[in-house]
């Protein structure tokens, strides 16, 4: 025996919670309908959308009426309580994160956290994966603003390749990566893209790289007025610009012969015995061997025994000459004397330095406030330790807590650390730059700075309730 049923079923919506009802009653002054003007006032006063206009609210009202009531020609331009509830939970009409840039973008670059990738050309692991421009393209489309390229000579020493040195990674030509950067640099954000070059080239190939970069980017390339900046320009000033960051060449001669001398083990020993990047101030830390085992271009900065001021020239640059060092806008290196020199008031030149995640943890354990002070004016880049051969990532929060602008992660990786990075840079319209809170940049009457390890009193406790609705 079979029984057939026919009927119509209607999905009922969840009743608006009490706080939504209270807000509706407050802004409609007890009436049954909310006008566009009342919705705009709610958006400004409750949701802190200072830029919301009445015309914006009218567009939202029209879209809700068309979607929920199929009204193409609005008979009434008002929302019911259920319409208002729908608006609050609509990811299209009322997204949790604004897609507009909301922060001041006129401060120096050192005042911002920057969406930064590590070994941006790798498609997979750090040892045997292919190098390609595709990961660079994907990163730029996501909003990443700083990419890293390790540049090496080819076997004939007449061309430049991008690869992870001393590994089995398959190389890609530098010109391929540069063209991809040019094409996709500003597909998701108008703010500047920083190319970090880890240079393992001869002087002749450096000249070839300079020509490649100048011809590829043309007017997109940013040239500072002097070789050493006293203050970084702002993201607003650098809109649609490409910035080169690298260690400036100091001496003439075959740099490649110096880089290629010995095998990977010899280079590691040489690096382990070198002075810590922060100088003699942190001698207990520098006595430890590097644990990351990484022998890529980041270590060139740690091996640098040259005085940073020696490569600085405050005379105006010849804009027409695309010499390699003239293309470098953000100088990488260390000042003479280490950390103390970097913190002296008379130290005028701004620089970028790089630390592995392990070295960074050791430094901030005893010199956390000094790191915060350093990053008020200069740029600090942190990169994953070398034993992360699977392209995993470290937790980025500690770097941000100490003011590090360029916390570099493997964008081809996976996991909570990378998700946290992506979530962080969805803010400020997803432009790739997030302004540091003011307390990072402030100094007290005795020149004290923010201490990330200090226990501060709780000023406010937030209680959050979540509403789940099946639609």
UniProtKB/TrEMBL annotation:
GO biological process annotations for this chain's record? Answer: intracellular signal transduction; lipid catabolic process
In this chain, the stretch annotated as Disordered covers 277-306
Quote the PROSITE patterns the UniProt record gives. PIPLC_X_DOMAIN, PIPLC_Y_DOMAIN
* Record field: transmembrane: none
Q: Where mainly located?
A: membrane
Topological category with respect to the lipid bilayer: Peripheral membrane protein
Top-level enzyme category? hydrolase
Q: Which reaction does it catalyse?
A: a 1,2-diacyl-sn-glycero-3-phospho-(1D-myo-inositol-4,5-bisphosphate) + H2O = 1D-myo-inositol 1,4,5-trisphosphate + a 1,2-diacyl-sn-glycerol + H(+)
Q: Which residues form the PI-PLC Y-box domain?
A: 354-440
Record's Gene Ontology CC terms? plasma membrane
Stretches of Basic and acidic residues bias are at: 288-297
* InterPro entries referenced in this protein's UniProt entry, alphabetically: EF-hand-dom_pair (IPR011992), PI-PLC_fam (IPR001192), PLC-like_Pdiesterase_TIM-brl (IPR017946), PLC_EF-hand-like (IPR015359), PLipase_C_PInositol-sp_X_dom (IPR000909), PLipase_C_Pinositol-sp_Y (IPR001711)
Recite the UniProt keywords alphabetically: Hydrolase, Lipid degradation, Lipid metabolism
**Protein name as annotated:** Phosphoinositide phospholipase C
Native source species: Manihot esculenta (Cassava)
